[in-house]
Amino acid sequence: MGGIGSGARRSTHIGNVEEMLALDIRALRRLGVIAPGECIIDTLHWSIGGLSTARARLRIDLSDIERGGAITINGEMPDGAIKQLVAIEMVPSAFGGHRCYFICPCTAQRCEVLYYARGRFGSREAQRLSYAVQSMDEVSRARHKAAKLRSRLCGSGSQPRPRGRNRIDMVSRLRRAELETQALYLEQLRALSGWSDTQRIPSKRL
Do 116 and 169 fall into the same domain? Predict the structure, then answer.
């Protein structure tokens, strides 16, 4: 017979993506570092609260569009030095140009974000990471969604502030998210109040 809890399902996740250093190929392209047909060398810095936590020199060779390319990551991470080569696949876009993907060194699957954990970069699945919202309740998820929309409206890092129609749409989405958060919170309060009111009051013993 197994011990207590032996039949319980165990989580295989080792952390959340929000806590990890990441390489986002979409953000790198917006910065001009990912450029099909070119070979570019640049330095990337990661920081938390304005303090540098890691740096890496990137060499992105996409000079041969037909055969794809690779990114060489050479730098100092929080737990030591790293030198890693990751393949990049370029897929023709229906509207012209190419869309770029990392090829995860562990799973050989396409991905747009690589996360650093246990001394290497890999996809979320390979690194066994989850999203913070997966462990949140409904109200916390709604608050998290609203906070992300506020951050995007302000612009941060490689994501510029939205303008024109995009900004109008995002403001509308934020208002809906805030109303949803408020409604869920009030519903939660009503549920707690109702549960409290229905508690049985012990009668006095005669």
Answer: no
Pair (126, 141) in one structural domain: no
- The C-alpha atoms of residue 154 and residue 111 are separated, in whole angstroms, by 27
Give me the pLDDT at residue 174, please. 81
Are residues 37 and 83 located together in one domain of the fold?
A: yes
pTM higher than 0.70 for the full model? no
Q: Which residue type, as a one-letter code, is found at position 92?
A: P
Residues 10-26 have a mean pLDDT of 76
Residues 169 and 120 in one domain: no
3-class SS letters over 86-152 = EEEEEEECCCCCEEEEEECCCCCCEECEEEEECCEEECHHHHCEECHHHHCCHHHHHHHHHHHHHHH
83/159 same-domain check: no
Q: Which residue has the tokens 């737990």?
A: 79
Contact 44, 27 (CB under 8 A): no
pLDDT for the residue numbered 135:
53
Q: Look-up: residue for tokens 């969604």? A: 145
Domain span at residue 142 reads: 136-195
Within a domain: 162: yes
Q: Please tell me the predicted confidence (pLDDT) of residue 140.
A: 66
- DSSP annotation of 69 reads E
Give dist(CA 156, CA 145) in Å, integer.
16
Q: Decide if 1 is inside a domain.
A: no
Residues 6+ apart with CB under 8 A from 119: 77, 79, 80, 82
